Amino acid sequence: MAKLPGVTITGASGRMGQMLIAQVLASEKLALVGAVERPGHAWVGQDIGLAMGGSAIGVTVSDDAQAAISAADVVIDFTAPAATLAFSTIAAAAGTVHVIGTTGMTEAEIAQLAPAAEKTVIVRAGNMSLGVNLLTQLTKRVAAALDADYDIEIVEAHHNKKVDAPSGTALMLGEAAAEGRGVKLAEVSDRARDGITGARQRGDIGFAAIRGGDIVGEHDVMFAAEGERIILRHVASDRSVFARGALKAALWGLGKAPGEYDMLDVLGLNDAR
Q: Taking the domains of the chain in order of start, what are their residue ranges?
């Protein structure tokens, strides 16, 4: 039997980390070879299966990211911007495919991935679900079809542990809407409304963030004009949709030329851009 491509998961103890590990273990196309946590974390040194409350699987949680990533064909990374940048350097040196689901990265931080992408494959997306990426394309097309008489508002909701706002998905949708309109999101983004703000600026793209309970992820893109509203919506009820997308990206990236890619590439939707 041919050896399966090996995967290392960073942020192993997190919600997404554990979901990714479960999905890799259930996969018939990938094998878990590494799990990474920060130095000093209680899980370091434990078998990841036992740490997650199950049976031992023979993979020990490590705080040596360089060793764990270098031993893998793919690293799947849903952590934090600073950690992701550090992992990108390691992955580039090892030639390991780097699948990035980390959100909250600034434009400057994203730009810092470029040197790594010259040496290895990076697949990065604010959201890795098929549905959200289809929603992104719909948002772009509707925005291109409607003029600025239609105000664009993006409303997102997530669980109360999420640390960044607007969500990476909301920003991805905002970028799609701005691209459809032929403008730069940075020039029309409206994220802060409190107090006497004055009337809404024509052509702006507004954002609102809701945080509460265990909401996995909900995103509405509203096009509101006099007399009508068009609302495009995606609701994720199970975090596994993101993990399954990440595994799809991991398999797709194997054997590709070094460079920066996204889920539109993975899903073959680039012609729709």
A: 6-124+239-272, 130-236
Told to judge if 219 belongs to the known catalytic residues of this protein, a careful annotator would answer no
Q: What is the pLDDT of residue 272?
A: 45
How many Å apart are CA 170 and CA 43, to the nearest integer? Answer: 32
Environment class of residue 227 by beta-carbon count within 10 Å: exposed (0-12), middle (13-18) or buried (19+)? exposed
pLDDT attached to residue 269: 76
Reply yes or no on whether 162 is catalytic: yes
- CATH fold for domain 6-124+239-272: Rossmann fold (3.40.50)
Query: Residues 41, 159, 162, 256: which is the catalytic one?
Result: 162
Tokens of 86: 């550090």
CA distance 260 to 88: 12
Catalytic residue among 158, 219, 234, 248: 158
Radius of gyration of the chain (CA): 20
CB atoms within 10 A of CB 250: 27
CA 135/CA 34 separation, integer angstroms: 33
Stretches in the chain below the pLDDT threshold 70: 1-2, 271-273
User: 130-236: which CATH topology?
Assistant: Dihydrodipicolinate Reductase; domain 2 (3.30.360)
- CB hemisphere CA count around 160 (13 angstroms): 3
Q: What is the secondary structure of 104-160 as a DSSP string?
A: ---HHHHHTTHHHHTTSEEEE-S---HHHHHHHHHHHHHHHHS-TTSEEEEEEEE-T
